[in-house]
Amino acid sequence: MKALHCKAYGPPETLVIEEVPDPAPGAGEVLVEVRFAALNFPDVLMIEGKYQFKPPFPFSPGGEFSGVVREVGDGVTQFARGDEVFGGAPGGAMRELVTTPAERLYKKPEALTFEGASGILTTYGTSYYALVQRAALKAGETLLVTGAAGGVGISAIQLGKALGARVIAGASSDEKLEVASQAGADDLVNYGDGDLKEKVKALTGGQGADVIYDPVGGDLFDQCMRCVAWQGRVLVIGFTAGIPKLPTNLVLLKGCQVVGVFFGSWTTRDPDGMTRNIHEIVAMIERGEFSPLIGGIYPFADYAAAFRCLSERRATGKVLLKIA
Asked: Looking at residues 101-125, what average pLDDT do you find?
Protein backbone atom coordinates (compact mmCIF):
# COMPACT_ATOMS: atom_id res chain seq x y z
CA MET A 1 0.00 0.00 0.00
CA LYS A 2 0.96 3.67 -0.32
CA ALA A 3 1.48 5.89 2.72
CA LEU A 4 2.34 9.58 3.10
CA HIS A 5 5.35 9.79 5.42
CA CYS A 6 7.02 12.54 7.37
CA LYS A 7 10.66 11.46 7.76
CA ALA A 8 12.07 14.78 9.00
CA TYR A 9 10.49 18.03 10.16
CA GLY A 10 9.96 20.61 7.48
CA PRO A 11 7.51 22.09 4.96
CA PRO A 12 4.91 19.95 3.14
CA GLU A 13 7.24 19.44 0.16
CA THR A 14 9.54 17.31 2.34
CA LEU A 15 6.81 14.68 2.82
CA VAL A 16 6.99 11.58 0.62
CA ILE A 17 4.57 8.90 -0.58
CA GLU A 18 6.12 5.47 -0.11
CA GLU A 19 5.19 1.84 -0.63
CA VAL A 20 4.93 0.01 2.70
CA PRO A 21 3.64 -3.43 3.71
CA ASP A 22 -0.09 -3.81 4.26
CA PRO A 23 -0.95 -3.73 7.99
CA ALA A 24 -3.01 -6.38 9.75
CA PRO A 25 -5.50 -5.66 12.54
CA GLY A 26 -4.59 -6.81 16.02
CA ALA A 27 -7.04 -7.85 18.73
CA GLY A 28 -9.71 -5.18 19.12
CA GLU A 29 -8.65 -3.39 15.94
CA VAL A 30 -10.19 -2.81 12.52
CA LEU A 31 -8.44 -2.56 9.16
CA VAL A 32 -10.00 0.12 6.94
CA GLU A 33 -9.53 1.04 3.28
CA VAL A 34 -9.29 4.82 3.41
CA ARG A 35 -11.41 6.86 0.99
CA PHE A 36 -10.73 10.37 2.35
CA ALA A 37 -8.37 11.74 5.01
CA ALA A 38 -9.12 15.15 6.52
CA LEU A 39 -6.52 17.79 7.32
CA ASN A 40 -6.47 19.88 10.47
CA PHE A 41 -4.12 22.69 11.53
CA PRO A 42 -2.32 20.44 14.07
CA ASP A 43 -1.20 18.32 11.09
CA VAL A 44 0.64 21.38 9.75
CA LEU A 45 2.29 21.93 13.12
CA MET A 46 3.13 18.24 13.49
CA ILE A 47 5.11 17.94 10.26
CA GLU A 48 7.03 21.10 11.25
CA GLY A 49 7.85 19.73 14.72
CA LYS A 50 5.82 22.47 16.43
CA TYR A 51 3.06 20.34 17.94
CA GLN A 52 3.08 19.10 21.53
CA PHE A 53 2.81 15.49 20.35
CA LYS A 54 5.84 14.29 18.38
CA PRO A 55 5.46 10.75 16.99
CA PRO A 56 8.63 8.87 15.99
CA PHE A 57 9.78 9.01 12.37
CA PRO A 58 8.52 8.03 9.92
CA PHE A 59 4.88 8.85 10.63
CA SER A 60 1.78 9.53 8.56
CA PRO A 61 -0.07 12.80 9.28
CA GLY A 62 -3.83 12.98 9.57
CA GLY A 63 -6.00 12.05 12.52
CA GLU A 64 -9.36 11.40 10.87
CA PHE A 65 -10.73 9.61 7.84
CA SER A 66 -13.61 7.78 6.19
CA GLY A 67 -13.53 4.45 4.42
CA VAL A 68 -14.67 0.84 4.20
CA VAL A 69 -13.84 -1.99 6.59
CA ARG A 70 -11.60 -4.64 5.01
CA GLU A 71 -10.91 -6.85 8.04
CA VAL A 72 -11.60 -7.00 11.77
CA GLY A 73 -9.34 -8.31 14.52
CA ASP A 74 -10.12 -10.76 17.29
CA GLY A 75 -12.87 -9.64 19.64
CA VAL A 76 -14.40 -7.07 17.28
CA THR A 77 -18.11 -7.75 16.85
CA GLN A 78 -19.58 -4.30 16.10
CA PHE A 79 -18.03 -4.02 12.63
CA ALA A 80 -17.82 -6.35 9.63
CA ARG A 81 -16.14 -6.39 6.23
CA GLY A 82 -17.81 -3.88 3.91
CA ASP A 83 -19.11 -1.53 6.62
CA GLU A 84 -18.83 2.15 5.69
CA VAL A 85 -17.16 3.96 8.58
CA PHE A 86 -15.46 7.15 9.77
CA GLY A 87 -13.21 7.74 12.71
CA GLY A 88 -9.79 8.45 14.12
CA ALA A 89 -6.42 6.95 13.24
CA PRO A 90 -3.84 7.08 16.03
CA GLY A 91 -1.15 6.00 13.56
CA GLY A 92 -2.04 8.56 10.87
CA ALA A 93 -4.78 8.46 8.25
CA MET A 94 -2.92 9.59 5.14
CA ARG A 95 -2.39 6.10 3.81
CA GLU A 96 -4.38 3.60 1.79
CA LEU A 97 -4.96 1.24 4.73
CA VAL A 98 -5.20 2.08 8.43
CA THR A 99 -5.63 -0.01 11.54
CA THR A 100 -7.46 1.62 14.42
CA PRO A 101 -9.06 0.51 17.68
CA ALA A 102 -12.72 -0.37 17.16
CA GLU A 103 -13.78 2.22 19.75
CA ARG A 104 -12.32 4.97 17.52
CA LEU A 105 -14.67 4.03 14.65
CA TYR A 106 -18.30 4.94 13.89
CA LYS A 107 -20.64 3.65 11.22
CA LYS A 108 -21.27 6.18 8.49
CA PRO A 109 -24.97 7.07 8.25
CA GLU A 110 -26.65 7.24 4.85
CA ALA A 111 -27.16 10.98 5.34
CA LEU A 112 -23.38 11.50 5.11
CA THR A 113 -21.12 11.12 2.09
CA PHE A 114 -17.61 9.73 2.56
CA GLU A 115 -16.34 13.27 2.03
CA GLY A 116 -18.56 14.75 4.73
CA ALA A 117 -17.95 11.93 7.19
CA SER A 118 -14.17 12.18 6.98
CA GLY A 119 -14.12 15.54 8.74
CA ILE A 120 -16.64 14.92 11.53
CA LEU A 121 -14.50 13.51 14.30
CA THR A 122 -11.98 16.27 15.00
CA THR A 123 -13.63 19.42 13.67
CA TYR A 124 -17.21 18.92 14.81
CA GLY A 125 -16.04 16.91 17.81
CA THR A 126 -13.89 19.83 18.98
CA SER A 127 -16.64 22.40 18.49
CA TYR A 128 -19.37 20.34 20.18
CA TYR A 129 -17.11 19.64 23.18
CA ALA A 130 -16.14 23.33 23.34
CA LEU A 131 -19.66 24.73 23.12
CA VAL A 132 -21.50 22.13 25.20
CA GLN A 133 -19.11 20.76 27.82
CA ARG A 134 -16.69 23.68 28.18
CA ALA A 135 -18.84 26.78 27.56
CA ALA A 136 -22.31 25.44 28.47
CA LEU A 137 -23.72 27.53 25.63
CA LYS A 138 -27.40 28.31 26.17
CA ALA A 139 -30.15 29.00 23.66
CA GLY A 140 -30.52 32.75 23.20
CA GLU A 141 -26.90 33.57 24.05
CA THR A 142 -24.60 35.33 21.58
CA LEU A 143 -21.69 33.32 20.19
CA LEU A 144 -18.76 35.02 18.40
CA VAL A 145 -16.67 32.76 16.15
CA THR A 146 -13.30 34.02 14.88
CA GLY A 147 -11.60 32.35 11.91
CA ALA A 148 -15.18 31.65 10.92
CA ALA A 149 -14.52 30.34 7.40
CA GLY A 150 -12.11 27.59 8.42
CA GLY A 151 -13.05 24.00 9.23
CA VAL A 152 -13.52 24.45 12.98
CA GLY A 153 -15.05 27.88 12.48
CA ILE A 154 -17.74 26.56 10.14
CA SER A 155 -18.50 23.70 12.54
CA ALA A 156 -18.83 26.15 15.45
CA ILE A 157 -21.26 28.30 13.46
CA GLN A 158 -23.41 25.33 12.50
CA LEU A 159 -23.43 23.78 15.96
CA GLY A 160 -24.01 27.15 17.63
CA LYS A 161 -27.10 27.70 15.47
CA ALA A 162 -28.33 24.16 16.15
CA LEU A 163 -27.96 24.83 19.88
CA GLY A 164 -30.10 27.98 19.62
CA ALA A 165 -27.47 30.72 19.84
CA ARG A 166 -27.23 33.95 17.89
CA VAL A 167 -23.97 33.59 15.95
CA ILE A 168 -21.63 36.41 14.94
CA ALA A 169 -19.02 35.24 12.43
CA GLY A 170 -15.69 37.04 12.28
CA ALA A 171 -13.16 36.69 9.44
CA SER A 172 -10.46 38.71 7.69
CA SER A 173 -12.18 39.17 4.32
CA ASP A 174 -15.62 39.55 2.79
CA GLU A 175 -15.03 36.41 0.72
CA LYS A 176 -14.54 34.35 3.86
CA LEU A 177 -17.55 35.97 5.49
CA GLU A 178 -19.70 34.90 2.54
CA VAL A 179 -18.79 31.29 3.36
CA ALA A 180 -19.68 31.89 7.01
CA SER A 181 -23.00 33.39 5.95
CA GLN A 182 -23.80 30.30 3.90
CA ALA A 183 -23.07 28.22 7.02
CA GLY A 184 -25.84 30.07 8.86
CA ALA A 185 -24.20 32.97 10.73
CA ASP A 186 -26.64 35.69 11.82
CA ASP A 187 -24.18 38.60 11.70
CA LEU A 188 -20.83 39.15 10.00
CA VAL A 189 -17.74 41.08 11.14
CA ASN A 190 -14.77 41.77 8.87
CA TYR A 191 -11.76 42.30 11.16
CA GLY A 192 -9.27 42.58 8.30
CA ASP A 193 -8.78 46.21 9.34
CA GLY A 194 -7.79 45.14 12.85
CA ASP A 195 -11.06 46.20 14.47
CA LEU A 196 -13.09 43.47 16.14
CA LYS A 197 -14.01 44.93 19.52
CA GLU A 198 -16.06 47.94 18.44
CA LYS A 199 -17.90 46.06 15.70
CA VAL A 200 -18.97 43.31 18.10
CA LYS A 201 -19.97 45.86 20.72
CA ALA A 202 -22.11 47.67 18.11
CA LEU A 203 -23.89 44.44 17.18
CA THR A 204 -24.61 43.57 20.81
CA GLY A 205 -25.76 46.92 22.16
CA GLY A 206 -22.47 47.39 23.99
CA GLN A 207 -22.79 44.11 25.91
CA GLY A 208 -20.33 41.93 24.00
CA ALA A 209 -20.57 38.24 23.18
CA ASP A 210 -21.53 35.69 25.84
CA VAL A 211 -19.24 33.04 24.36
CA ILE A 212 -16.22 33.59 22.08
CA TYR A 213 -14.82 30.68 20.10
CA ASP A 214 -11.26 31.60 19.09
CA PRO A 215 -9.04 29.31 16.97
CA VAL A 216 -6.94 32.27 15.78
CA GLY A 217 -5.09 33.64 18.82
CA GLY A 218 -2.34 36.14 18.08
CA ASP A 219 -3.20 39.83 18.35
CA LEU A 220 -6.89 39.05 17.82
CA PHE A 221 -7.13 37.36 21.20
CA ASP A 222 -6.71 40.65 23.06
CA GLN A 223 -9.70 42.06 21.18
CA CYS A 224 -11.70 38.95 22.02
CA MET A 225 -11.02 39.66 25.67
CA ARG A 226 -12.23 43.22 25.19
CA CYS A 227 -15.54 42.30 23.56
CA VAL A 228 -16.61 39.41 25.78
CA ALA A 229 -19.71 40.06 27.86
CA TRP A 230 -19.81 40.27 31.65
CA GLN A 231 -19.35 36.72 32.99
CA GLY A 232 -18.78 35.50 29.45
CA ARG A 233 -16.59 32.59 28.35
CA VAL A 234 -13.62 32.85 25.97
CA LEU A 235 -12.79 29.46 24.44
CA VAL A 236 -9.12 28.91 23.59
CA ILE A 237 -9.27 26.59 20.56
CA GLY A 238 -5.94 27.18 18.80
CA PHE A 239 -3.28 29.61 17.65
CA THR A 240 -3.16 29.87 13.85
CA ALA A 241 -1.88 33.45 14.25
CA GLY A 242 0.44 32.71 17.16
CA ILE A 243 0.21 32.16 20.91
CA PRO A 244 -1.09 35.31 22.67
CA LYS A 245 -0.51 36.60 26.18
CA LEU A 246 -3.48 36.60 28.54
CA PRO A 247 -4.44 40.06 29.93
CA THR A 248 -5.50 38.90 33.39
CA ASN A 249 -6.73 42.40 34.30
CA LEU A 250 -9.50 41.94 31.72
CA VAL A 251 -10.41 38.55 33.20
CA LEU A 252 -11.02 40.36 36.49
CA LEU A 253 -12.82 43.38 35.02
CA LYS A 254 -15.11 41.25 32.85
CA GLY A 255 -15.72 38.62 35.51
CA CYS A 256 -15.20 36.20 32.62
CA GLN A 257 -13.73 32.76 32.16
CA VAL A 258 -10.90 31.84 29.79
CA VAL A 259 -11.48 28.18 29.00
CA GLY A 260 -8.97 25.81 27.45
CA VAL A 261 -10.30 23.31 24.92
CA PHE A 262 -7.90 20.35 24.60
CA PHE A 263 -10.15 18.00 22.69
CA GLY A 264 -7.55 15.31 22.03
CA SER A 265 -6.73 14.87 25.71
CA TRP A 266 -10.42 14.86 26.68
CA THR A 267 -11.21 12.03 24.26
CA THR A 268 -8.75 9.75 26.05
CA ARG A 269 -9.98 10.79 29.51
CA ASP A 270 -13.69 10.45 28.71
CA PRO A 271 -14.14 8.07 25.75
CA ASP A 272 -17.79 7.45 26.64
CA GLY A 273 -18.47 11.18 26.58
CA MET A 274 -16.75 11.41 23.21
CA THR A 275 -18.96 8.64 21.83
CA ARG A 276 -22.10 10.36 23.10
CA ASN A 277 -21.03 13.63 21.48
CA ILE A 278 -20.36 12.04 18.09
CA HIS A 279 -23.72 10.27 18.16
CA GLU A 280 -25.47 13.58 18.89
CA ILE A 281 -23.60 15.34 16.08
CA VAL A 282 -24.62 12.59 13.65
CA ALA A 283 -28.22 12.83 14.90
CA MET A 284 -28.20 16.58 14.17
CA ILE A 285 -27.00 15.90 10.63
CA GLU A 286 -29.61 13.19 10.12
CA ARG A 287 -32.30 15.63 11.31
CA GLY A 288 -31.15 18.04 8.60
CA GLU A 289 -29.94 20.73 11.00
CA PHE A 290 -26.70 21.18 9.03
CA SER A 291 -24.36 19.46 6.57
CA PRO A 292 -20.55 19.40 6.70
CA LEU A 293 -19.03 22.05 4.43
CA ILE A 294 -16.15 20.83 2.23
CA GLY A 295 -13.75 23.58 1.21
CA GLY A 296 -11.41 21.58 -1.01
CA ILE A 297 -10.61 18.04 -2.11
CA TYR A 298 -7.06 17.31 -3.28
CA PRO A 299 -5.74 14.14 -4.97
CA PHE A 300 -3.42 12.09 -2.78
CA ALA A 301 -0.41 13.14 -4.89
CA ASP A 302 -1.21 16.84 -4.30
CA TYR A 303 -0.72 16.59 -0.55
CA ALA A 304 1.67 19.58 -0.46
CA ALA A 305 -0.98 21.88 -1.98
CA ALA A 306 -3.53 20.67 0.57
CA PHE A 307 -1.17 21.42 3.46
CA ARG A 308 -0.35 24.83 1.99
CA CYS A 309 -4.04 25.67 1.83
CA LEU A 310 -4.18 25.30 5.61
CA SER A 311 -0.81 26.79 6.53
CA GLU A 312 -1.49 29.89 4.41
CA ARG A 313 -4.95 30.25 5.99
CA ARG A 314 -6.78 30.01 2.66
CA ALA A 315 -9.09 27.18 3.70
CA THR A 316 -12.83 27.79 3.65
CA GLY A 317 -14.45 24.69 5.08
CA LYS A 318 -12.85 21.29 5.46
CA VAL A 319 -9.75 20.34 3.41
CA LEU A 320 -9.55 16.68 2.35
CA LEU A 321 -7.13 14.32 0.65
CA LYS A 322 -8.75 11.78 -1.67
CA ILE A 323 -6.82 8.63 -0.88
CA ALA A 324 -8.77 6.02 -2.89
From this structure: 94
